[in-house]
Design a protein that fits this description.
The protein has 367 residues and is α/β, with parallel strands linked by helices. The protein has eleven helices and 22 strands. Helices cover 31% and strands 25% of the residues. The protein has a six-stranded mixed β-sheet with strand order 5-2-1-9-21-20, covered by helices on one side. Strands 13-12-11-17 form a four-stranded parallel β-sheet. The C terminus is likely disordered. GO terms for molecular function: oxidoreductase activity.
């Protein structure tokens, strides 16, 4: 299909979805019986089940088990065209998505589901020593770091260096940080002890560092308390109330305390994609677009922003966290709106925080 084919004007409404994550995929699925043509644009050729990235990072799963080719996902959907491309901007006056190769695609309705990336709170230099976890490449990098740390500890006779190799610091106690800390503890204390001869992997120290007062800060207190108790039983040390002030190659600084540590994993903050800049739209501190209750961009009824790219509050004015169940509900909501009369803007149709919590609990039990 040529650019001319993609931009031809026909009888069918053209919906362009940018991002093949949970929100974008669910939006397209919800448009299955609509009389529209759909173009999905993503800079990677696969859909990634991000909630299980931590298991790839800790050797439990292979990368192929959580990634599915986008073209395969929609191979039976003749109404969907998949493009491997990088979006460089949006010309909303002309209703065009601008691509990095200097081409563009016209849309009638645009859905931006472009997700988020790591944020190091003004310290991008920390990324070299504290990789984050958003992509398959990140997961394989962290896997290599974790396994290499045990191997290095096995080789050294220096007790201090051995302790540093066997100290793992996870920064940020959101869902990703909690999952990573828990699974590293499982790996160290239950899976690896029989595989090493010169070290006792049970002595590994797993730190979960959170600047705030509790783990899972966006979740209800009952769930936060439960997670903290479960992590403690696994042997995870939870450090609350002090921010990380530096990430070095051989140590992490928490407040004024320097902790020798060879493996640091960043799960503390995210920065939304540049969608707000593309649209010249209002956004919050993390770069998420401030959308209306129906998930459209103010002054642009034809543009929706969903998932981690959107700043959304529920009916009780609680911020909806950036997790898969929320993105899927937003995608389904937008798919239902794309080609029929819109409800009035004062109808809050997105999920509540409790809906997200319930969905997350169901997903956890089923897995």
């Amino acid at each position: 299909m040529t650019p001319t084919d993609l931009n031809k004007v026909g009888d069918r409404h053209h919906v362009v979805v940018v991002g093949g994550g949970f929100g974008g995929i669910q939006c397209i699925k919800s448009l299955k019986r609509a009389n529209v043509r759909i173009t999905l644009i993503d800079q990677r050729n696969h859909h990634l089940f991000q909630p299980l990235l931590y298991q790839v990072a800790t050797t439990i799963l292979a990368p192929s088990e959580i990634a599915w080719p986008l073209r395969q996902v929609f191979r039976d959907r003749k109404d969907v065209t998949t493009l491997l491309a990088t979006v460089a901007g949006v010309h909303h006056q002309n209703k065009r998505v601008l691509l990095s190769d200097d081409t563009s695609i016209h849309y009638d309705t645009l859905v931006l589901a472009t997700g988020a990336r790591h944020s190091y709170f003004g310290h991008p230099e920390w990324e070299q020593n504290a990789p984050g976890l958003k992509t398959l490449e990140d997961a394989t990098t962290i896997r290599r770091c974790i396994l290499s740390a045990f191997e290095a500890a096995e080789r050294t006779d220096d007790p201090e260096l051995q302790r540093a190799h066997l100290t793992f610091a996870v920064i940020g106690a959101g869902p990703t940080g909690v999952e990573l800390a828990g699974i590293i503890a499982e790996l160290s204390h239950r899976i690896l002890p029989r595989e090493f001869r010169r070290i006792d992997t049970n002595t590994a120290r797993i730190l979960l560092i959170e600047a705030g007062p509790k783990v899972l800060p966006t979740f209800p207190q009952t769930l936060s308390d439960y997670a903290a108790r479960a992590l403690s039983k696994l042997g995870v040390e939870i450090l609350l109330g002090d921010p990380v002030t530096a990430c070095h190659a051989t140590a992490v600084e928490v407040g004024e305390t320097i902790i020798p540590c060879e493996t640091i994993i960043w799960a503390a903050g995210v920065q939304a994609s540049p969608a707000a800049n593309w649209l010249q739209a209002d956004h919050d501190r993390a770069g998420r677009v401030l959308v209306r209750p129906d998930l459209t961009v103010p002054r642009h009824d034809e543009i929706f922003v969903i998932g981690d790219t959107a700043s959304v509050n529920d009916a009780h004015d609680n911020h909806v966290p950036g997790i898969a169940p929320a993105a899927k509900q937003m995608g389904a909501h937008v798919g239902g709106l794309c080609c029929r009369d819109r409800p009035t803007a004062d109808i809050v149709a997105v999920c509540t925080l409790q809906d997200v919590v319930n969905a997350a609990q169901v997903q956890r039990r089923s897995s």
